[in-house]
Design a protein that fits this description.
Elements: H1 3-15, H2 21-29, E1 37-41, E2 44-48, E3 53-60, E4 67-74, E5 95-97, E6 107-109, E7 118-126, E8 132-134, E9 139-144, E10 147-149, E11 153-155, E12 160-165, E13 176-180, E14 183-190, E15 194-197, E16 206-212, E17 222-238, E18 243-244, E19 249-258, E20 262-267, E21 270-274, E22 277-280, E23 289-297, E24 300-303, E25 307-309, E26 311-322, E27 328-329, E28 334-343, E29 347-352, E30 355-359, E31 362-365, E32 374-382, E33 385-388, E34 392-394, E35 396-397
Parallel strand pairs: 2-9, 11-17, 18-26, 27-35
Antiparallel strand pairs: 1-3, 3-6, 4-7, 5-6, 7-8, 7-9, 10-12, 12-15, 13-14, 13-16, 16-17, 17-19, 19-22, 20-21, 20-23, 23-24, 23-25, 26-28, 28-31, 29-30, 29-32, 32-33, 32-34
Length: about 400
């Protein structure tokens, strides 16, 4: 710069209104504050946990300066020298500078965590005294995870919407993926963050989680509990084979319902017990009959089909009835009837004294004679035992004229 030029400038300054000294010096050195700049695009980033973030950046600096250092920093504190993140152990393996020492200052940060949510800045250090500059508008990085928002309980037939929520709107366009019990619902891929289940069924119960296509992060699973009335109600008998008097028998009522149903037991039309298990110890013939269980919860009730308990037992209550009444006279017809309670039905034998005289429930004597007088009894027998009746006496009267 020549002496004449400096003289003209001094004369102009003397004639012009007073200006700040710093501005005057900048004019002399040909430097403007606008020569320093850092531009971030975008300035706000919402990124998914464990994803990779690219913070795009361009910068300018005054001519005549040479870049000695160009690096990214975070949350600079007044009076402290901003740290170079590439030298920070928390970042050094994840941070990759993609820029240059001319105008590109883009950086890539991989495997971001929730702790990476900060304001990030680009900083330049040149070879001139006080030739440093920080782009103070910065990039705000918010790292979010995913959470499923779902009602805890729904009733079968309801329509339900599950939402995959993040703490901020993801910067990258997101396609959401849904999982039930860790299995992908491949038919449910959508660009919005909602999963609509129309007319839910019990099969829709399970643990739901969500993710963003192309990312490894999956939300924690949330249980969806579908309530429904009892169904598939049935009774199982143990033991399943022949039941003999004196055995122990268990009836088990199975029922599919949510919430679990209360169970009651009915024999005929009478309630005889409650609970999923109905136990009869030392069963008797009186316990024979039809049983069913009723399953009930707040959403409805259902009965099982009837099951029959057919108790096997040996003969009992064996007795003989004589048809007719009064005096038996020679020539009359007399019928003896053997009464017996048993299961299965018993075979009947007839004895006069100790002699076998016939079989079958009915023993008939036509034109009875005095020779038929005596004590009669019947024997009732089945595979489970036998029993004799008490003896009855036939006292046959004869005509005096004989």
């Amino acid at each position: 710069m020549s002496f004449n030029t400096i003289y003209v400038m001094l004369m102009w300054v003397r004639m012009a209104p007073p200006l700040p000294l710093i501005f005057f010096l900048l004019m002399i050195h040909g430097v403007s504050s606008d020569d320093w700049s850092v531009s971030y695009s975008p300035s706000h980033i919402c990124a998914l946990k464990d994803s990779t973030v690219i913070m795009r950046c361009t910068y300018t600096y005054p001519t005549g300066h040479q870049i000695k250092e160009a690096f990214w920093t975070k949350n600079p504190e007044k009076g402290d020298e901003p740290p170079d993140l590439s030298k920070d152990p928390e970042y050094s393996q994840r941070l990759q500078y993609l820029g240059d020492k001319q105008q590109n200052c883009t950086v890539r940060l991989s495997h971001v965590t929730l702790k990476d949510s900060h304001m990030y800045y680009f900083r330049i250090i040149t070879d001139k005294p006080d030739g440093t500059y920080t782009g103070d508008s910065g990039v705000t990085l918010t790292v979010t995870d995913l959470q499923v928002e779902s009602p805890e309980r729904v009733t079968e037939g309801d329509s339900v919407t599950l939402r995959c929520k993040s703490s901020c709107a993801l910067t990258d366009r997101a396609t959401f993926i849904w999982y039930r019990n860790s299995q992908p619902l491949t038919e449910r891929r959508d660009r919005n963050n909602e999963l609509l289940l129309q007319s839910v069924r019990r099969e829709d119960s399970g643990r739901y989680s969500c993710a963003v296509d192309g990312h490894t992060h999956i939300s924690p699973a949330v249980q969806l509990n579908v309530m429904y009335p009892p169904r598939s109600v049935s009774v199982f008998i143990s033991p399943s084979g022949v039941i003999v008097e004196g055995d122990s028998v268990t009836l088990n009522c199975t029922s599919d319902s949510n919430p679990p149903a209360e169970i009651s037991w009915i024999k005929g039309g009478t309630t005889v017990g409650s609970g999923r298990i109905y136990n009869i110890s030392k069963i008797s013939s009186d316990d024979s009959g039809e049983y069913k269980c009723k399953s009930i919860n707040e959403h409805g009730e259902k009965y099982s089909d009837n099951v029959t308990l057919n108790i096997m037992y040996p003969p009992k209550n064996v007795s003989v009835l004589i048809s007719g009444s009064g005096v038996i006279v020679e020539g009359d017809s007399v019928t003896l009837n053997c009464i017996s309670d048993s299961n299965p039905p018993a075979e009947i034998s007839w004895f006069k004294g100790g002699t076998f005289v016939g079989s079958g429930r009915i023993f008939s004597i036509s034109k009875i004679s005095s020779d038929d007088s005596g004590e009669y009894k019947c024997k009732s027998i089945n595979k489970h035992g036998e029993k004799y009746s008490d003896a009855v006496t036939l006292n046959v009267m004869f005509h005096l004229g004989k």
